[in-house]
């Protein structure tokens, strides 16, 4: 063992802490979760109650959440992915039926379709908005003949034109499942997401606007559908564990339909109820931070925000920017440079057809998905969460401006002896030198870019 490794131990034994390397500024993680003191106390109360699985806290959370989004019913489940699968199963579609799914979405959305015994049909997106548009929906619908259902994603928390997309697919709203993993707090026009179509599915993953850790919710105005999903979340059983365990409760139950093990626990529900009390304040904070980003980045050439797809209120779940060639540094190189400066970022999402499994299992319309391909090379998600400091936002914006300012001046004539850059997948690769990012150290919580699970 070398001497320099021994010295810190000696100082520590003498009661002096080892020296900490100096940093110019603190890291800015991409995502960070805060559980309120009220939520911690609520979890402790449930843990001391003697009943910790699905029970009275879950029922109260369902009632309070349904009231918040103006839905008649809410069913709490284990994740948004489970919510999507259960909602699709409840539609009673034929085995192998086709479901339109955005090409740019989380992989769990397509997995939910496949797990429900259905086939995803990928829908191209408008690079300006990041979401499908009526023309791309109609093209995907023609490719599969006649879709049986459609999944609509409110991308990053932006409102999606649900009714227009349903009309383009020739589907009634009863056969639209909204993926609102990003969209608690989103409004389409003057109506909150959760009360627009027959079923809407939310996520309470650790990085979401209402963080619990894991969990999801299905909202609907159809009482019969809510009952089907409620049974389906627990093996299709006619009676849950609490009812069978209560004094005077019967042990008998029946199973008349397919189901999953996808129930929410009272511990999760208690945390969710307490977090919901803070939600409006957290949303105001998200909007303020997003406005700060917008103001600072307006003057940075080559960066812009996705355009709105329809009128309404954005939930500000993600702050996504598009990195254009005019910025001078491609998206992947920019991610590496920001990481070297202690700033965490992510990409939402890798298009489904870029993954081998979905190329084998999904239907891709003739002509491919050019909008998704063009958009993917540009997408970059910046840190955004309620307890993010304004100075951290300013630091992120400052680094983006400095990196962009280093872009080479445009040339009107190519000097002799130099070859033109070759453009591949949205990246400029010089024949003289190709940039290879240095080893990127991880910033922030464990692998936040995975967005596991919905």
Helix/strand class: alpha/beta
Give the strand order of the largest sheet, numbering strands 1, 2, ... along the chain.
1-9-8-5-4-2-3
- Order of helical and strand elements: HHHEHEHEHEHEEEEEHHHHEEEHHHEHEE
Mean of residue pLDDT values: 87
Radius of gyration of CA atoms, rounded to a whole number: 24 Å
Q: What fraction strand?
A: 5-15%
N- and C-termini, Cα separation = 47 Å
Give unreliable regions as ranges.
1-23, 412-453
Q: How would you sum up the major sheet? A: 7 strands, mixed
Helicity level: 25-40%
Tertiary shape: globular
Number of distinct beta strands:
15
Note the total helix count: 15
Structure summarized in a few sentences:
The chain is an alpha/beta fold and 454 residues long.
Using brief descriptors, characterize the structure shown.
single chain, 454 residues, alpha/beta, 3-stranded antiparallel sheet, 15 helices, 35% helix, globular, disordered N terminus
